[in-house]
C-alpha cells in the first residue's frame, strides 16, 4: 500500500520505502507507530502519526493510561522477528488498558550494521517528537511512558529519552547492542540519564574477536546479568539445533534470551526471578552475594523497581533454560576442619538437598579449602519446599594433577596410608528467594568426620542453637566447579565465531 494522504489510520503508510537517504528528515516518514488493537501481529494495527489528531482518536489512544513503546533492533530479514509477537502478547495481557505501540523502523534497521547504528539517532528523535506532541496536545504524562528496546532498539530508546522534553518514566534495555556502543560517551548510547528508571538485561556479553553482540558495560540504573551475562542455559549449539533445526536461531539464542526473560516476567507473576547485587560474576558464583539488605536484590523484568540513587548496579542470577526461567538460589557455608593434618586431601564434595516437596540430585563441588569457611552457590530448578536435610558426601580424591602429585609425594616420602579425615560440623544455608537463614548440624553429633567415600547427614540444628556467625577470621575459599550446565565448550565458541565473522563483514561493509 502506498499513499500520501491518509484517510484511514488503519491502512495507510505515507512513505517511500525506496528512499534510503540517511537524512533524518526523510527518515521521519518511514518510522511507523503501530498501535496494537489485536494481539495478532498479522492483523494490521492502527498507525499513530505525529500531528494527526484523527489517528489518535481512531486508534483509541487513551492518554491517561500507560503508554508502552516496543522498539526492535537491527534486522537481516526485514521482518519482525518472532519474539515481537510474544512480547506484544505478554504486554497486552499484563496491561490491558495500556497503549501498546510497536515502533517500526524496519527499513532503517535492515541495512549494514553501521548504517543501522547511524539511524538510531534519527529514530530516537522521531519518537521524541511524537512524545512531545502527545504532551503538548494531550497532556500525556511522561512518567506513564515506558520504552522497551531490544538490541539497537535500546539505544534508540536512549536517544528518545535524551531528546524528549522532560523525562520518560522508564526505559528497559533488552540486551542492548554492543558493537559501536561499548565504551562510547553516554550521550551516544543508552544511559541512566535517559529515563527516571533505566533497567537493562545483559544476556550475550561474551566476546569473540574483540566484540560482543550485547554491550558488556553497565549502562542503566540497574544492570542485570542473568547467568553471568554470557553462557545462557539451553543456548548451546546442539540444544538449539535440536529444538529448531535452524542455524540462525543458534546465533540469536543468547541475545534474544533477554526478551524471553522479560516476557517471562510479564507472564509468570507467581514466581518472579530475583537478581542480587554483586561486584563481579565470580563472586556471585561463589554464593557470596545473596543478600536483599539495603536494596541489594531486585525482581528482574517488568516488576523491577527503581532503587534510590543507584546507578550501574550490577546484579546477577541463575536461570533455568526455558520458561518459567526462575529457579532457587541457596548460599551454603561450611567450615572444613583439617585437624588430622590431612594436607594431601583435595576433596570433591557432593551436596544433596532434601526438601519438603522434592530432593535434588547430587550437586558437585570441588576446590574445597581446608581450615577455611567455604562458601558456594547451589541453584535448584525446582521448588524443593522447606529445606529439611542436607547430605554431604565425599566422592573420593579428585583426579587433578595436583592431588595426584600430592598422593605420589606422600606415598613416596612416608609410607603411612593416606586416608584423609576432614571434619564438617555444620552448614549454614541462606535461601536467596526467601532470605531465610538456617543452620544445619550433624544429625549424629558424634559423626562429623568424613573420609573419601563417606557421607555426613545434616538436619536443622536444635532450637536455641546460636545462629549468629562467629567472628570472621576466614576467607571465602575455593574455586567452585559447577556440576552440569554450561553446555559444550566447543559448540559455544563455534557459535561465537560465526556471529563474530558475520559482524566483521557487516561492520567492514563487505557485501556478503
Ligand atoms: C483509560 O485508562 C484509564 C487508566 O488505565 C482507565 O481508567 C480508563 O478506563 C481508560 N479509558 C478508556 C476509555 O478506556
Ligand atoms: C552517519 O550519517 C552521517 C550523515 O547523516 C554521515 O556523515 C556519517 O558518516 C554516518 N556515519 C556512519 C558511521 O556511517
Ligand atoms: C508488579 O508491578 C505491578 C505494578 O507495575 C504491581 O501492581 C504488582 O503488584 C507487582 N507484582 C508483584 C508480584 O510485585
Ligand atoms: C588446620 O588446623 C589444625 C588445627 O586446628 C592444624 O593442626 C592443621 O595443621 C591445619 N591445617 C592446615 C592445612 O592449615
Q: Give the biggest sheet.
A: 11 strands, mixed
Proportion of residues in extended strands:
15-25%
Distance between the termini: 30 Å
Q: What's the number of domains? A: 2
Uncertain spans: 1-7, 11-28, 470-490
The name of the CATH topology of the largest domain is Rossmann fold
Task: Give the helix tally.
Answer: 11
- Overall average pLDDT: 83
Description of the molecule:
The protein has 512 residues and is of the alpha/beta class. The protein has helices at 24-28, 53-59, 82-94, 106-109, 113-138, 152-163, 237-244, 247-267, 281-285, 401-413, 489-507; strands spanning 32-35, 46-48, 67-71, 99-104, 145-150, 168-174, 195-201, 222-226, 274-277, 297-299, 313-317, 328-336, 347-355, 363-366, 372-380, 387-397, 422-423, 426-431, 437-442, 449-450, 455-460, 476-477. The strands form 3 sheets. The protein has an 11-stranded mixed beta sheet, sandwiched between helices. Helix 3 links the parallel strand 3 and strand 4 (99-104). The structure holds 2-acetamido-2-deoxy-beta-D-glucopyranose (4 copies). One 2-acetamido-2-deoxy-beta-D-glucopyranose (NAG) binds next to loops. One 2-acetamido-2-deoxy-beta-D-glucopyranose binds at residues 22, 114-115, 118.
Amino acid at each position: 500500500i502506498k499513499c500520501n494522504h491518509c484517510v484511514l489510520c488503519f491502512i495507510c503508510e505515507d512513505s517511500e520505502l525506496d528512499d534510503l537517504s540517511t537524512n533524518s528528515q526523510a527518515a521521519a516518514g518511514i518510522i511507523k507507530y503501530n498501535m496494537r488493537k489485536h494481539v495478532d501481529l498479522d492483523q494490521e494495527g492502527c498507525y499513530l502519526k505525529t500531528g494527526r489528531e484523527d489517528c489518535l482518536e481512531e486508534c483509541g489512544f487513551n492518554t491517561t493510561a500507560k503508554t508502552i513503546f516496543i522498539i526492535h533492533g537491527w534486522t537481516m530479514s526485514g521482518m519482525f522477528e518472532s519474539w515481537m509477537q510474544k512480547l506484544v502478547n505478554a504486554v497486552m495481557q499484563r496491561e490491558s488498558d495500556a497503549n501498546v505501540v510497536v515502533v517500526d523502523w524496519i527499513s532503517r534497521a535492515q541495512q549494514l550494521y553501521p548504517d543501522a547504528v547511524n539511524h538510531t539517532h534519527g529514530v530516537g528523535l522521531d519518537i521524541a517528537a511524537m512524545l512531545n506532541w502527545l504532551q503538548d496536545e494531550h497532556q500525556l504524562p511522561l512518567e506513564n511512558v515506558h520504552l522497551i528496546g531490544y538490541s539497537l532498539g535500546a539505544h534508540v530508546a536512549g536517544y528518545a529519552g535524551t531528546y524528549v522534553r522532560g523525562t520518560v518514566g522508564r526505559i528497559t534495555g533488552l540486551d542492548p547492542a554492543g558493537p559501536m556502543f561499548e565504551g562510547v560517551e553516554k550521550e551516544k548510547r543508552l544511559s541512566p540519564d535517559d529515563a527516571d528508571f533505566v533497567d537493562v538485561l545483559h544476556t550475550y556479553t561474551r566476546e569473540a574477536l574483540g566484540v560482543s553482540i550485547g554491550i558488556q558495560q553497565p549502562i542503566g540504573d540497574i544492570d542485570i546479568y542473568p547467568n553471568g551475562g554470557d553462557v545462557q542455559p539451553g543456548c548451546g549449539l546442539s540444544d538449539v539445533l535440536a529444538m529448531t533445526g535452524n542455524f540462525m536461531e543458534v546465533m540469536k539464542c543468547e541475545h534474544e534470551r533477554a526478551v524471553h526473560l522479560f516476557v517471562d516476567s510479564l507472564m509468570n507473576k507467581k514466581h518472579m526471578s530475583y537478581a542480587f547485587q554483586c561486584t563481579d560474576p565470580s563472586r556471585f558464583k561463589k554464593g557470596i552475594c545473596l543478600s536483599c539488605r539495603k536494596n541489594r536484590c531486585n525482581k528482574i523484568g517488568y516488576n523491577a523497581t527503581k532503587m534510590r540513587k543507584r546507578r550501574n548496579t550490577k546484579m546477577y542470577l541463575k536461570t533455568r533454560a526455558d520458561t518459567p526461567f526462575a529457579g532457587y538460589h541457596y548460599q551454603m557455608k561450611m567450615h572444613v576442619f583439617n585437624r588430622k593434618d590431612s594436607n594431601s586431601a583435595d576433596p570433591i564434595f557432593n551436596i544433596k538437598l532434601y526438601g519438603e516437596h522434592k530432593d535434588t540430585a547430587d550437586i558437585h563441588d570441588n576446590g574445597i579449602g581446608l581450615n577455611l569457611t567455604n562458601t558456594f552457590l547451589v541453584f535448584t530448578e525446582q521448588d524443593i519446599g522447606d529445606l529439611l536435610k542436607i547430605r554431604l558426601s565425599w566422592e573420593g580424591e579428585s583426579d587433578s594433577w595436583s592431588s595426584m602429585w600430592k598422593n605420589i609425594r606422600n606415598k613416596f616420602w612416608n609410607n603411612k596410608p593416606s586416608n584423609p579425615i576432614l571434619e564438617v560440623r555444620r552448614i549454614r544455608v541462606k535461601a536467596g528467594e526467601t532470605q531465610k537463614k538456617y543452620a544445619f548440624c550433624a544429625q549424629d553429633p558424634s559423626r562429623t568426620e568424613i573420609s573419601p567415600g563417606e557421607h555426613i547427614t545434616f538436619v536443622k540444628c536444635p532450637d536455641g542453637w546460636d545462629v549468629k556467625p562467629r567472628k570472621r577470621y576466614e576467607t571465602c575459599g575455593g574455586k567452585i566447579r559447577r556440576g552440569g550446565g554450561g553446555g559444550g565448550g566447543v559448540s559455544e565458541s563455534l557459535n561465537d565465531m560465526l556471529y563474530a565473522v558475520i559482524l566483521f563483514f557487516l561492520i567492514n561493509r563487505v557485501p556478503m
